[in-house]
Amino acid sequence: MLGLNRHAHCQLMGLLGPLVISASLACAENWPGWRGPRGDGTSLEKEVPTRWSSTENVVWKTAVSGEGHSSPVVWNDRVFLTTGLPERQERALLCFDRGTGGALWQQTVIQAPLEAKNGENSYASATPVTDGEKIYVTFLDREEVVVAAYDFAGKQLWLARPGRFQSQWGFSHTPRLFEDKVIVGWAQQGAAGHQAGRRGERHRQQGCLEDVRGGALRAFTHRGGRLVSDLLLQREGGALL
Predict the structure, then answer these.
(1) Are the beta carbons of 141 and 110 closer than 8 angstroms?
(2) Would residue 240 count as lying in a domain?
(3) Residue 225 pLDDT > 70, yes or no?
């Protein structure tokens, strides 16, 4: 069963096991990716439930196959979630009906040998992101970072491999959207793939994919230093990454 974590739209909440959605369904704001529409974990919705039990403020529960640490994302009447299926060596994207909890489709993104990871990590730890037309996911295929785009019907539109990643802790790097770009940053110890530097030194790689051109790699950067999750800050007269 998939354990989902705390980030919520319309108080979509995670319990160890089933996917659970609350009774507050009349919401105007979508929850399109990790930490919500502004990337800061906040919602503009008012008067949402603040208490739950196995029955209180719960509309439906749906069992989710596999396991993963990714958060669900919500766009209108759709809920998207990733999962890992270790017994089949698959990493998949799932889609549910927000109103009923019914499974609409499941698509295998990659089937590959399982990567090394910490016991507290999973094979589906990166949260998907959507722009309302496409859903973007990231996984690891051995030592290659995989970024893929799907439409809301579950059709794969493109799949790209922007760089390499190697870590004993596993992969959990969530994509972000900005204008026509899909941005994925990842960090690791030592040198691997495009990375350069002294072993034991922590580095970041960042792939910038241009979605409108089918996932073509637009830019690839590398920098060192202490790492935190990416934030995209919009300001008057331009944008700051």
Answers:
(1) yes
(2) no
(3) no
CB-count exposure of residue 109 (10 Å: 0-12, 13-18, 19+): buried
Assess if residue 239 is contained within a domain. Answer: no
pTM (predicted TM-score): 0.77
Please name the residue that has the structure tokens 């900005």: 178
Structure tokens that stand for 136 in this block: 């973007």
Q: Is the pLDDT of residue 199 over 90?
A: no
Alpha-carbon gap, residue 172 to 94, rounded angstroms: 17
Q: What is the torsional sign of CA 195, 197, 201, 204?
A: negative
For residue 75, pLDDT over 70 is answered with yes
* Residue 238 belongs to some domain of the structure: no
Q: With respect to residue 164, please indicate whether it lies within any of the assigned structural domains.
A: yes
- Six-digit token string for 223: 């920098």
In terms of residue numbers, what domain contains 111? 2-230
> Quick one: which of 212, 208, 206, 114 has its CA closest to 158?
212
Instruction: Specify the number of domains making up the chain.
Output: 1
Closest by Cα among 227, 119, 207 to 168 = 119
Reference 55, options 79, 22, 24; nearest CA is 22
The pLDDT-based confidence of 137 (bands split at 50, 70, 90) is: very high
Domain CATH code at residue 69: 2.40.128.630
